[in-house]
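retry 2 of 3: previous attempt timed out while embedding PBG. Reduced batch size to 1 and resubmitted. Inputs unchanged:
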Amino acid sequence: MPHRYRRLRASAAIRGLVRETHLLADDLLQPFFVIDGKNKKEPIDAMPGVFRYSVDLLLKEIAACVRLGAKGGILFGVSRHKDNTGKYAYAANGPVPCAIKAIKKHFPQFFIVTDVCLCAYMGHGHCGIVEAQKINNDKTLPVLARMALCHAQAGADMVAPSDMMDFRVAAIRQALNKENFQDVGILSYAVKYASAYYGPFREAAHSAPGFGDRRSYQMDAANSREALKEALQDLDEGADMVMVKPALVYLDIVSLLRRKLNVPIVAYNVSGEYAMVKAAAQNGWIDERSLVLETLTSIKRAGADIIISYHAKAALEWLR
Ligand code: PBG
Ligand code: ZN
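retry 2 succeeded.
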């Protein structure tokens, strides 16, 4: 018999009772860009409301997020020091290790994930060691492992390699275990597509590639079979959770991994996705609040357990 579906939509109460997906403060991780220096808060053109913070001001921002119910965040280092070895990526006095120590001192419960990648520390802006204009996978692995170890030593709870070199999860897991950091987790950017949606981030992190593009290591937007294989391999190498990135134009991939894997799935609602919403909102073309809550809910409905989003702080406020 044809059904009157509108019965279960008739009031806020019944809609609440039958609602399947609930976005929670617990699901969200806010990204933070960290720089050297003091008393610095630099705006990012294409990401209104997002800033690069020196550690002192980052602490204030994190305090504000914690008051809103934030449980954790992911840190990205932005460095003026760049070379072609990537050594600044594992400098113990770099912006990320300093930020980790300061955050853990004031907010020991705040869950810190760190992005592990070399692009922000390389003169050429690529995510790995470059030789003769090519990215050398295996020479990159020990550098990534050192970077992850440096973050673990500073007190990070979890490291998140975003470089897309093969076998880096194994290299990082092994390096962490050897130094007794068995309890530091790995969130692998296992399924990271070569995406135009990263544009604003590269402005924020000063990490745009100086030549060529990232298509020899990031995934082709047209492919989905490879996504499952990448995720399975990273789990096999020791990843605790796997990420799909970007989120919105890859919700089919989020859903695929959710159905095939029994581990937490993370989706990264990236900088370009944020920028589009902010631009439309600033023009008065959309209602930012409902659009953001709808968007984040869709990512969760598709199967993400955790959502990394530049909207996280605002969403925390709206969810209260
Ligand atoms: C660095 C990195 C990137 C992002 C996260 N880590 C950029 C890139 O691969 O060029 C993108 C995040 C975003 O766009 O918000 N490897
Ligand atoms: Zn990178």
